Fold these 2 entries.
Entry 1:
Amino acid sequence: MGVNIKYNFPANFWWGAATSGPQTEGRFYKRHDNVFDYWFDKEPQAFFNQVGPNVTSNFFNSYKEDIQMMKSIGLNSVRTSIQWTRLIKDFETAQVDEDGLEFYNNVINEFLKAGIIPVINLHHFDLPVELYDKYGGWESKKVVDLFVLFAKKCFALFGDRVKHWITFNEPMVIVEGEYLYQFHYPKIVDGKKAVQVLYNLNLASAKVVGAFHKTKCAENGGKIGVVLNLTPSYPRSQAENDVKAANFVEDFFNRSFLDPAIKGEFSHTLVDVLKRDGVLWEATPEELTIIRNNTVDFLGVNYYQPRRAKAKEAPFDESKGWMPDKYFDDYKLPGCRMNPYRGWEIYPQAIYDIAMNIKNNYGNISWYLSENGMGVEGEEKYVQKDGSIDDQYRIDFYEEHLSWLHKAISEKANCFGFHAWTPIDCWSWSNAYKNRYGYIAVDLATQIKTIKKSGYWIKKVSQQNGF
Ligand code: BG6
């Protein structure tokens, strides 16, 4: 359709964007704190400019206007998440908080009224801090079961209207942030615990998938998936030790969730290494059967940057105990393109490589690009005299990534959509509002929201189903 369209996408393609509850709503009237709420209260200086999760982009109060703006820029689908700490009054029984229920009902109804498909995620790093204090959070299988209870409640309450569900956003980031590299509370460094958490999150996802498949929503065609940050690992060279290092990175950071989610089993090479090193997770045969029998219906792939690895050269710091870093060093490709604000390499071709990996090694399962984005600091400097925001770099970034996605689709990749991070500039963990990603800008002082040039661009792309 249309003239001058070089890249046409399949019919009913999702042109949307992703965000999450804790990054947009603000804490208003929330009965419980998640780990980030707690961490901010305790240590505000750990957050960029000491901006915390209290107000964020005020979605709790402005969801109607915000959803109208999302509609006005042509988004046909949007992912957000239900906060465990807002919906649930009592975690042990999953008794519902009436205000939380009313809010999420309103949000979902508003999306539907606007003709936007709501994609609802159940966990976006927002563990209730009480469940960390009481049980050790994701270290505990009790918490796995409480999460299943919460998920079942969500299906029962919203499954009549929500047809696309996500169990977790980037579960690997929980493992890395909370248990290895100290960028999420409780900032522990413990490789053995990290490995158990990795397993428990896989178990939780499979149990939730299993519970969903028994619902009316699933009977009526509803689907459930998981969103993984698949950061492909490229070796420094084809030398055997570099390839081996990159393969370990792939095993530990990607296949550890991808394989159980899609194939129902863990990578054997990963299990061998963890067993040999004495850090393998504790699992029962019954749990492994649950993981085997409850694979996802579709996959979401978040992609921002590639990962490059080389054979271990720097001495491994034994004082930290077991760490995956024992088997590789990160490697920066000389002269590579960078997003200087985020410190991430820009490598659009990885989208094609991810798509071919899914096609060739994961049965070409149905998937969508669930996050991709360009975070830029100081976007105020791109405000023009007439008040418009000229973020051409974001448009260029998306067009380049989408051209590789298009190539993959033309070679039969089973991709059904593209979601940018994010519809409206949102709060982001310890980076807070440092790097802006949205199609729509938010002025934190006034909460005035303004569509950027990229917002007008996506509207056109969505209308034309291509560019
Ligand atoms: C994604 C997360 O990995 O990256 C989001 O799912 C996050 O929650 C986004 O906000 C951008 O992260 P940052 O740190 O650059 O703001």
Entry 2:
Amino acid sequence: MFQNKTIIITGGASGIGAATVTLFSRAGANVYILDKKKPTDYSSLSIHYLECDVSNADQVKSAIYTILQKNPKIDYLFCNAGIHLFANIEDSSFEAIQKVFATNLLGTIYCLQQVLPSMKQQRFGSIVLMASDQAFIAKEQCAIYGASKAAIAQLAKSTALDYAQYGIRVNCVCPGTIDTPMYQAVLEQFQQKSGLSVSSIRDQVAEKLPLRRVGKPEEVAQVVSFLCSEAASFMTGALVNVDGGYTIQ
Ligand code: NAD
């Protein structure tokens, strides 16, 4: 499905990003992972890893320059790297706030800035940004994280509008609760604050979802693949829920 296609996936070493790397690689794509952390398995010849902190504009510029030197074109970009902050406003340190916005929002912007010129030149490209169900709704102890994700949803719509004329589509996935290392870490933090057991918190979370379970990283990867593909050729600026029905309630 993605033979002769090149995709950059940020945060591809873990969770949703790693599931998307696997899906695209199996579908024949040439995959570049940009991540601070080295992936445990990128043995496939079609998967390449570049160490990159997306919150550092120079590192993003240099990584994407390296990719463009080796590839005539970048077809797809999945801006997925992100961090969570489980705290209300008062408990969020200035340093932590800056780190969330630098990674989630600025990291996305830096990648867009480096990739859009070449997509514009080739008059083709499909970009998927990673927001969250918190682009639509609020969750307790998530003010800063939620604000960063709502901003990304807006960025997707604005970028879609500006670049449609160049044949570039920009869409946004908005996952609900997905079982990844990030979710595990949030569960542990919630356990420490609430005193509840991790398994009872897990059950409570699942109970609140219409589909009565949390999602799998592969289920988000499938939607990213659809949005990149020609099957979604008339979609741009869409905010796509992948949340087991959480935000319809
Ligand atoms: P994860 O922690 O498993 O993976 C995140 C990846 O991003 C890691 O490989 C990490 O090293 C990388 N990363 C973090 N900061 C980085 C930086 N500065 N530069 C480069 N790489 C960096 O988390 P996940 O759950 O797979 O989350 C992926 C994305 O999905 C995030 O943007 C997250 O906010 C979003 N999301 C997750 C959920 C969920 O429930 N898991 C829900 C909605 C949205």
